[in-house]
UniProtKB/TrEMBL annotation:
InterPro entries: ZrgA-like (IPR021253). It comes from the Bacteria. This is DUF2796 domain-containing protein. The keyword Signal applies. It comes from Pseudomonas saxonica.
Amino acid sequence: MRRLLLALPFALLPLAMAHAADAHDHDHEHGSLPPHEHGVGSLNVALDGQTLELDLDGPSMNLVGFEHVATTDADKAKVASARQQLENPLVLFSIPKAAGCTADAQELKSPLFEPAPEEGAVKGEHHHSDIEAHYAFTCSQPDALKTLDLAQFFKTFPGTHTIKVQLIGSTGQQSVEATPKAPTLKF
């Protein structure tokens, strides 16, 4: 077991180096922080036995259309709507009903979901903000999970143009990019 844990960083090194090169190029194009690219999110999917886990991370710009603290009623409504959509992952990720998946755990994190700070602390500040979501499911029929369809996610959050997916399932590990034109992931 210890050898596996020690080998893992070396196995992931080529992926990390490729990501760093992409981020470096992106920094020069837009002057933003490396892991934060508007229109692009990441999704880690792991299916192990009857357990399905999803970890989503993306700029709040993709999901609500802005990154600032919501102070207007319209912005607050957008944040509330996005949160409500994210709280329904079986629909959002089109998890097949035949798989019999039930949500065991769900966690949503974002500075936008926190109470607004004092007004003086907001003026003149601009921060990149992400929205992170973690979901854990138990699936009574995991063999029915042949695909995961992100079409509904792209329809719900049209500011997301690409989702970089790392998927681990019974057939191994794969890395794919899902887009509105190619939204289906195969286990």
